[in-house]
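User: Please predict structures.

Assistant: First:
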Amino acid sequence: MATIKDVAARAEVSITLVSRYLNGVKGVGNASAARIQAAIDELGYRPNELARSLVLQKTNTIGVVVDTLSSTFMFPLFEGLESGALEFNPDNRYNIIYCSANGREEQKRRHIRFLTQGRVDGLLIYGSCVEDDRLIASLAESGFPFALIENDPPGIDVNKIVIDNAGGAREAVQWLVRKGCRRIFHMGGNDALKITCDRRFGYFAAMEEAGLEPVVIRPEGFRQVQEVVLTKQRLFEAGYQEMKKLLEAGDLPDGIFFASDVLAFGAIQALNEAGKSVPEDLQVVGFDDENPWEFNSRLSRIPTLRQPLRQAGYLGMKSLIQSLAHPQDPKSRIVLKTELIEPLLP
């Protein structure tokens, strides 16, 4: 295997000059650079990246920590991250490492500790777990470069990309009001997530604006739940069971805003089994723009709030790369709007 000494000998320059060329340091003439690159190509030399990172105190790597890597819901986020890395990292200076915490705080803490011990130059953290605030505050105190997507802890001066969940919830309720609904319930999601609180807040605000009485359904299995990542099947089952309770009590509203589409799919399954349908017997709006067909091929798409996850990933990666290049620049907080999607009638 060729060494830097072999390259220097073949190019007839000093080892120091080869090192300066490899590390992008000024002071290497065009002729010398051409001979060094020719020697590298001829010898098939590959620099020791670990040694370079120790010398330069840079790894040319960005770490991305998320709660789950397996959900199809996350794919647009990953597309945005990769797109942002490609556009704002045209020379491929940065590699990307993805870590999944599987919704566990200690696992997330372990990933962050591992990555920040000289293995990455900066971190992107996605998620809105309530328990993350302590971890994020500790990371901020360390001075390690990072950015947040979908979390906005107060007093933390880092780049943040935030999705307007409360605004989306308000738009959902306003849509139901325009459809003539006056008795509008809200079925909430996982209380371990801040987005659940944000969507509930938006619901209350819109109901107050409309002069309507709010009614919140909190699925029994989600109260004081500790898991951040709930399986889609568990969400579906929660929506199904809560709708069965409403049907048994004869207490159907004329509209429901669901904190997630999957909750709505479960509820609609229960409605269909009872001989009722959407929107004839009940207007619904969901959140997240999920596909119903993986649960039941007879379910149809519903009005929903689509999150700009691809844009969030793109801007998150952009903000981190720019911050690594210019660490003294002021940090930004970007709020992205959701989009109300009304499915086309068959």
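Second:
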Amino acid sequence: MRTKTPLFKNPPYDLEKYLVALGQDLRTARVRRNFTIADVAEKIGTGVRAIADAEKGKISTGAGVYFALLWVYGLLDQISFRDEEGERLASFREKSKAYAHTRGIGSGKIDHDF
């Protein structure tokens, strides 16, 4: 028998809460479109258990199932991730590299001769 990864045994609370909410939203989307679990499973080429697990927000359900469900319901284009924190950190690295590079030129004094 395979052992579960620590993430599956004890997921972070925020992650678990988010996945449960996502699962509920996916179920609502399915019911509003009058699809059965079997209909959706057939459309994305998976089993009904995978759909049921996704709707429960199980962390062990593959990301592909979640994205395929969003695709079936026409919601995939609403997913947008912008890594503002990563962009901010990268900009600091770029500035510090530029500063470090110019420090080695000349005596470190500003030369106004253009």
